[in-house]
């Protein structure tokens, strides 16, 4: 009979626990048995069911050329498939039953929402996305023009997968970056509505091998969880100003019918005041911008004070037009993608609570905006005129 002393008892108990620690391979998942989803799409079918689509790399084809792919066989680098169901989970399970490998969503980079589903409402999607531990809330969330399934089948030439092309474009400089977590935050907050990248496809022009490239068209505008419009071109740039997220960008003005290209190199926008009289809001926004001359197709000397002043005036009008177009969309739909209500809440918390919070959509739709814009040309480049111009004798 073995008698354990008080000194040896802890050691024996520790030895008995070791086998439990060493049995960590019981739930292992081999890489060869996994299908890693890099992008997925959720659409609304005509019968009202959800259609879930996935894009999975084909490991056997990834050693070939780095150009785009598509389809399901041959030298294509990825595989796209989809299934429908009354719930997102049902559709995903149907898809899994037809696959020899386990779908892994932990590395998903982009979640694409079809436009029809976005217009119906996106709030229900966040339940399954957030409830499943495997899903990453840091993945980008976008709205496809048309069907998300079609966007997954785009064939970009500079990236292996359309999902990767979308990710690179969405996170590039000068974009409003929205991931799943920030979209959910906007939906659950007051004084702001979500805005997501609005993405389509475009055929390449004058190319030997035409391809279907991913194209950022602008931003999908939401009122609560329903898409109501898209914000494109100048209005999209105005959204940057109102969100106070403006980045350097190019725009053009005219001097006597000739184009001058300018770069907005540095800009700020700030709420100066918020007032409410007779149920109508009046907001003052101060905008400052520093400009650089990028290209001059006119015959004017850029070092002239008169020309600089004229350029600044025209730049003022261009920026005012951008912001005004965005405000017009906001007021038409009584939506707040710029988060103007949240800015007022942060800067004027008492006024927001007492005057604006209860009726904010109606107040916003009728509000007056005083835009105080000041631009300054700080650089004209290394030359004042085209170096190929003849000098008068």
UniProtKB/TrEMBL annotation:
Domain Spore germination GerAC-like C-terminal, first and last residues per copy: 218-381
Record's GO cellular component terms: membrane
PROSITE patterns: PROKAR_LIPOPROTEIN
BP GO terms, sorted: spore germination
Superkingdom field: Bacteria
Compartments where located: Membrane
UniProt xrefs under Pfam families: Spore_GerAC (PF05504), Spore_GerAC_N (PF25198)
Keyword Disulfide bond: no
Residue intervals of the Spore germination protein N-terminal domain: 27-199
Keyword tags: Germination, Lipoprotein, Membrane, Palmitate, Signal
Alphabetized InterPro entries for the sequence: GerAC_N, Spore_GerAC-like, Spore_GerAC-like_C, Spore_GerAC_C_sf
Topology of the protein relative to the lipid bilayer: Lipid-anchor
Similarity section: Belongs to the GerABKC lipoprotein family.
Protein name, entry field: Ger(X)C family spore germination protein
Species assigned in the record: Paenibacillus aurantius
């Amino acid at each position: 009979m073995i008698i354990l002393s008080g000194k040896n008892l802890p050691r024996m108990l520790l030895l008995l626990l070791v086998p439990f620690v060493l049995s960590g391979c019981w739930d292992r998942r081999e890489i060869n048995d996994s299908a890693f989803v890099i992008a997925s799409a959720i659409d609304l079918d005509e019968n009202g069911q959800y259609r879930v689509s996935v894009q999975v790399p084909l490991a056997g084809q990834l050693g070939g050329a780095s150009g785009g792919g598509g389809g399901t066989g041959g030298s294509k680098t990825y595989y796209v498939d989809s299934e429908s169901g009354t719930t997102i989970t049902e559709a995903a399970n149907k898809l899994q039953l037809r696959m020899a490998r386990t779908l892994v969503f932990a590395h998903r980079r982009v979640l694409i929402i079809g436009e029809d589903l976005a217009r119906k409402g996106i709030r229900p999607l966040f339940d399954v996305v957030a409830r499943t531990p495997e899903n990453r809330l840091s993945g980008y969330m976008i709205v496809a023009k048309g069907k998300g399934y079609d966007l997954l089948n785009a064939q970009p030439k500079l990236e292996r997968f359309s999902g990767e092309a979308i990710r690179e474009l969405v996170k590039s400089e000068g974009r409003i970056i929205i991931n799943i977590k920030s979209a959910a935050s906007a939906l659950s907050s007051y004084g702001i509505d979500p805005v997501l990248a609005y993405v389509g496809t475009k055929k390449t022009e004058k190319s030997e091998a035409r391809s279907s490239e991913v194209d950022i068209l602008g931003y999908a505008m939401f009122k609560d969880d329903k898409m109501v419009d898209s914000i494109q071109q100048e209005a999209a740039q105005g959204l940057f100003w109102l969100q106070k997220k403006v980045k350097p960008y190019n725009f053009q003005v005219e001097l006597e019918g000739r184009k001058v290209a300018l770069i907005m190199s540095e800009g700020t926008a700030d709420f100066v005041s918020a007032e409410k009289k007779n149920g109508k809001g009046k907001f003052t926004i101060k905008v400052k911008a520093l400009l650089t001359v990028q290209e001059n197709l006119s015959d004017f000397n850029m070092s002239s004070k008169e020309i600089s002043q004229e350029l600044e005036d025209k730049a003022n009008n261009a920026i005012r037009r951008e912001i005004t177009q965005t405000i017009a969309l906001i007021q038409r739909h009584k939506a707040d993608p710029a988060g103007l209500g949240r800015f007022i809440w942060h800067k004027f918390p008492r006024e927001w609570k007492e005057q604006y919070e209860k009726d904010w959509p109606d107040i916003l739709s009728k509000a007056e905006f005083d835009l105080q814009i000041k631009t300054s040309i700080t650089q004209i480049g290394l030359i004042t005129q085209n170096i190929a111009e003849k000098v008068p004798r």
